[in-house]
């Protein structure tokens, strides 16, 4: 199992690389960045776990060495926000970085699972897809926008609100939509954990709104607290590792692994049609990409667990309607960036 991290020297890249080096599921870890990767890989190779680490820089053969034969490519390369910025403000800078990385992935590892962390995720995922389409190698089953941090935050925030009566490590709140502000729609009203739903139902509407708002704007909380030095890195490394580990387990044949991700709806992935029908029936804005729980398998995304859409309450439906109209613009921006429209 070869995993490549592109942007490996950054705030997310370094702790993510550490977690991957600690994982018994990883055999080879290749670290690509513009700076520091030889030092980081030398450091990580002193850890007595199995994965062999190699560092690559942006020289002639950097991408080829880092990406060739990779099973997973995790991309946290790019610029993070400062206070007062939206994720969309990162579009021009990170769009160029991501399209260049996608060109190289299409060339050196067209069959790898690509996990996109770089913001704005609602647009960068479409950029990767368009570049892959241009090269005739796009496989929607293998492209993942990383939205796991929104799920992780939802678990943490409702647990904190319950004063730890709900144990965060026992929760699995689903979050649908996209990854920025109002495109993030946490679903607290429906969950297999009945204590969670009971607790949520016991909140008054102001408390519910505050909780949902905190999940939607959780990123801003960290950006403000870091005072201009960056955005979430450690919680993101944890979240990116969680998704990567689940994809690897599914490749290794473990069954019934369900994880949420921002994925393309246009493939022949089971459940895509039902999601589109749901959106049409409700009269919501159509989208080509959405974050939903998906079942993972050796081929990547096996199916979309769309049933969640039939179980959300009317407030969550309204939030989803707002989310989809914003999402559609974010996605078009990414598509047009590559198509040159
Ligand atoms: P950072 O500045 O600490 O690290 C980014 C790294 O990318 C740097 O080491 C930089 O050298 C590298 N880089 C820049 N251009 C590159 C290129 N062309 N090729 C290879 N590497 C390149 O930033 P960070 O805090 O690690 O955040 C990275 C990105 O992740 C940001 O866009 C941020 O908004 C995003 N992010 C996303 C989520 C999410 O939930 N999806 C969460 C947190 C942060
Ligand atoms: C987050 O949700 O923490 C990330 O998307 C980073 C950001 O800019 O908020």
TrEMBL record:
Subunit structure, as described in the record: Homodimer.
Active site location: 179 (proton acceptor)
UniProt superkingdom: Eukaryota
Protein name: Malate dehydrogenase
This enzyme's EC code(s): 1.1.1.37
Top enzyme category: oxidoreductase
CDD domains associated with the record: MDH_glyoxysomal_mitochondrial
Keyword Oxidoreductase set for record: yes
Catalytic activity: (S)-malate + NAD(+) = oxaloacetate + NADH + H(+)
Positions with a binding annotation for substrate: 81, 87, 119, 153
Coiled-coil region: none
Annotated NAD(+) binding sites: 7-13, 33, 94, 117-119, 236
Database matches in PANTHER family: MALATE AND LACTATE DEHYDROGENASE, MALATE DEHYDROGENASE, MITOCHONDRIAL
Organism: Wickerhamomyces mucosus
Record carries keyword RNA-binding: no
């Amino acid at each position: 199992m070869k995993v490549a991290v592109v942007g490996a020297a950054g705030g997310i890249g370094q702790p993510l690389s550490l977690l991957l080096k600690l994982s018994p599921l990883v055999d080879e870890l290749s670290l690509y960045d513009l700076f520091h990767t030889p030092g980081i890989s030398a450091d990580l190779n002193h850890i007595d776990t199995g994965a062999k680490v190699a560092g690559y820089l942006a020289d002639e053969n950097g991408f080829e060495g880092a990406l060739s034969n990779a099973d997973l490519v995790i991309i946290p390369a790019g610029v993070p926000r400062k206070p007062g910025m939206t994720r969309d403000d990162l579009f021009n800078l990170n769009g160029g970085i991501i399209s260049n990385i996608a060109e190289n992935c299409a060339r050196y590892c067209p069959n790898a699972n690509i996990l996109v962390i770089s913001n704005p995720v609602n647009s960068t995922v479409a950029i990767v897809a368009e570049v892959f389409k241009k090269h005739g190698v796009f496989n929607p089953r293998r492209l993942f926008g990383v939205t796991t941090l929104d799920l992780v935050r939802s678990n943490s925030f409702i647990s904190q609100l319950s004063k730890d009566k709900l144990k965060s490590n026992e929760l699995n709140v689903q979050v649908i939509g996209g990854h920025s502000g109002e495109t993030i729609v946490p679903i607290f009203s429906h969950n297999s954990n009945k204590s969670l739903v009971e607790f949520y139902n016991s909140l008054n509407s102001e408390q519910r709104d505050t909780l949902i708002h905190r999940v939607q704007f959780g990123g801003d909380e960290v950006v403000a607290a870091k005072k201009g030095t960056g955005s979430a890195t450690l919680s993101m490394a944890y979240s990116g590792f969680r998704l990567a580990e689940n994809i690897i387990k599914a490749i290794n044949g473990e069954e019934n692994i369900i994880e949420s991700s921002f994925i393309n709806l246009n493939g022949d992935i089971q459940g895509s049609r039902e999601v589109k029908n749901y959106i049409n029936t409700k009269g919501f804005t159509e989208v080509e990409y959405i974050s939903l729980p998906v079942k993972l398998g050796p081929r990547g995304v096996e199916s979309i667990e769309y049933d969640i859409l039939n179980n959300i309450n009317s407030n969550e439906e309204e939030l989803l309607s707002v989310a989809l109209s914003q999402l559609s613009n974010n996605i078009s921006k990414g598509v047009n960036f590559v198509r040159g429209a």
